Amino acid sequence: MSRLNQKAGQLMREYIGSHGTESTDDLIAYAYGLVTKYGEGSAELACQMYDALAEAANAGVPAAEPAEPADYGEVARMVNATKSQNPANLPNGVSRLVKRAGADTTLKNAVRDGAEWAWVPHGDTCPFCITLASNGWQKASSKVLKGGHAEHIHANCDCEFAIRFDHNTTVAGYDPEKYLKQYRDAGGDINKMRRVNYAANKERINAQKRAAYAERQKYLISAAERGKGPITKITDSVINDFPAVKVDWFTEDQNKQFRSLHKELLQTSRDKNNCFETAFIVSGDLSRKTIVFGDETTISIPPLSTGLNSWILHNHPRNSSFSIEDIAAVTIPGYQGITIAKNNGGLEILTKSPNCDNIRLQNDVRRFLIRKPNKISDSDAQKMISKWVEKGWAKWLIVEKQK
């Protein structure tokens, strides 16, 4: 069943990568389809496993009945709540609801038949699940169902409910006394169990945290001007006279729209962000955008939300060229280009060639950051861009401000 949970989560992740997260209605519809399809599969597998256990135990109970997957309203609530907090967790939300359908099936049939249940840990078990496992085998009752559903179902968890029909049956490797000892040694304090677990697995946990931090750092772009000089205030003339834009593969109308987006970007920065860094994350067809506000030197770009071949449009308050953080951002898979609308009216466009190797571009950036971690300048970034242009991996267009 875990494969179904993982498959549903992976499909949701791929959908977000292709379509973004801007349309809540579309997210709900797709998530509901996945939860229904794979939830029904999870429930059916749970029925088969339950029936096999009942037959082996000569329990003489009726055939298991599948539980209903989450309905549209439940999926909508999950999507709305997750999107508002962290859209990157939407795949986990889908996986959890799929897993819940199988757990509901197991428990509801166990309650019907008076069976016993236990929470059996698997894999890298969290202290919360260890605490539940320490309770041992219990008579199945409606108390284990909250709102008609199995409790304890959370994301990234391989633990599961086990069922038995007699006291002589158990699950290989399940040792509630061991889990109870861990719980008691911690004085019944789950937070203390977490600290003990951390002490025992510090290196592995820290490695995971470093990997997660590195992943988050991919989404940071910065003007990297190091506070030199005053910020240029954006004027009406800069906005109105912003230069015409020409992207080779755009139609004439799309190039006009691209220019309009940059004018809107500068106006948004001036009117809503004190002329500080502001970004539009724009879909490849220019039909959708996400607005992000930064400060006078940096702006954090969130995970891709507008589909593949998106653009990062942002301004530089002090009119500098691309920074190393800027070009690191454009190497994120899913982005085809990044632009700077300078506060003085200048423009730079960096686009990746269709035949470029993202991994090679990312490795270039990583090697540079390792070699010169505290001595980064815009000229270094420009040298790297020039190398990419020379090798045919990128195109770099500079348009000076209108006179």
Can you tag this structure with a few keywords?
6-stranded mixed sheet, alpha+beta, 13 helices, 48% helix, 403 residues, elongated
Provide a compact summary of the structure.
This protein is of the alpha+beta class. It has helices at 2-19, 24-56, 72-85, 90-113, 127-133, 176-185, 190-200, 202-217, 236-240, 252-273, 324-330, 358-371, 378-390, and strands at residues 116-120, 138-139, 145-146, 149-150, 160-164, 220-222, 278-282, 289-293, 298-300, 310-316, 335-342, 347-352, 394-399.
What topology, given as strand order, has the largest sheet?
Answer: 8-7-10-11-12-13
Return residue spans where pLDDT drops below 50 for at least 5 consecutive residues.
Answer: 215-227
How many β strands by DSSP?
Answer: 13
Whole-number mean pLDDT? 83
**Beta-strand residue fraction:** 5-15%
Please identify the oligomeric state.
Answer: single chain
Distance between the termini: 65 Å
SSE topology string? HHHHEHEEEEHHHEHHEEEEHEEHHE
**What helical percentage do the residues reach?**
40-55%
Radius of gyration: 27 Å
The assigned structural class equals: alpha+beta
How many helices? The count is 13
Shape: elongated
The figure for the number of domains is 2
| Largest beta-sheet details | 6 strands, mixed
